[in-house]
Amino acid sequence: MSTILPLSGPSGGGGVGPGPTYSNGIGGGSGSGADWSSIGLGSSDVGLGTSGRGKGLPLVFRRLVKFRSMDFELAFWQLTYLVVAPRRVYKQTYHHKQTKNQWARDDPAMLLLIAGSLGAAGIAWSLLYRLSPTSALTTILLMIFRDFILFSLVTSFVLYTLANRLLLAPSVPHSSISDNRVEYAYAFDVAVNSFFPAFLTVYVGLLPLAAVVVRDNWVCLWVGNTLFLIAGVQYIYITYLGYVALPFVARSELFLSPLLPLFGGYLLSLLGFNVAKHALEIYFGQGWK
């Protein structure tokens, strides 16, 4: 198994600096693999991500217990900019491709930070609804593993399949086929990125308004439904930014197409369907306690 190395490089400078390099170039033997020199990457530029066993989601999950190799400072920076300036997060993907030879992150720090945030939100909602310890634990686990992990895995698989089958641009000269395909691990990264701002809007933003949005009047209905609309727009837009950052994905504007049914559904819901109230009833058995 490949040795797990810190992501921030041997100099100790956290953040976006280049990762460690290898003079022998992992996987640099004869046979399969792209000609790195032909696309501007020497063998020393190929990071740990080029290993056949160390690439993609399995590597991320194996690193979940390797806390010393995680760059939490960079992950926190990325989470902050996902809210205020999401384009800046995706500007780093090209640099990661140059240094690690993969578009996806190989650091699970962001997963842990979001899971921790969901855990804190679950505790807050459990206190608000006066849940028993068992029900509170169930709520937290559902938020983390169903709402976040499972939803991100399913969404990323659907978009990964759609992008690779229908939206790839013609191959770039002097590059391998794998260089012109969306990595599933990158699609998962995009889903994770898109989830966080939506989480803040719904899971956190709805907390102080829980007693308001369930009332039977149109203004409260509008407030709750608008929160869910904002969360949906955030999710779709950040997903779009993730795929438009890949130079080989054509017609990336199609990732914005869900905005049309989203706005249509929002307008219809204003006729009397309280999205927030129904969501709380599904989660906790009743709109307000």
Automatic annotation (TrEMBL):
Annotated membrane topology: Multi-pass membrane protein
Keywords: Membrane, Transmembrane, Transmembrane helix
Compartment list: Membrane
InterPro entries: UNC-50
Cellular component aspect of the GO annotation: Golgi membrane
Protein family: Belongs to the unc-50 family.
Membrane spanning stretches: 109-128, 140-163, 195-214, 226-249, 255-276
Keyword flag Membrane: yes
A Pfam cross-reference name: UNC-50
Secretion signal span: none
Name this protein carries in UniProt: UNC-50 family protein
Region of interest called Disordered, as start-end residue ranges on this chain: 1-24
Source species, domain of life: Eukaryota
Organism: Kwoniella heveanensis BCC8398
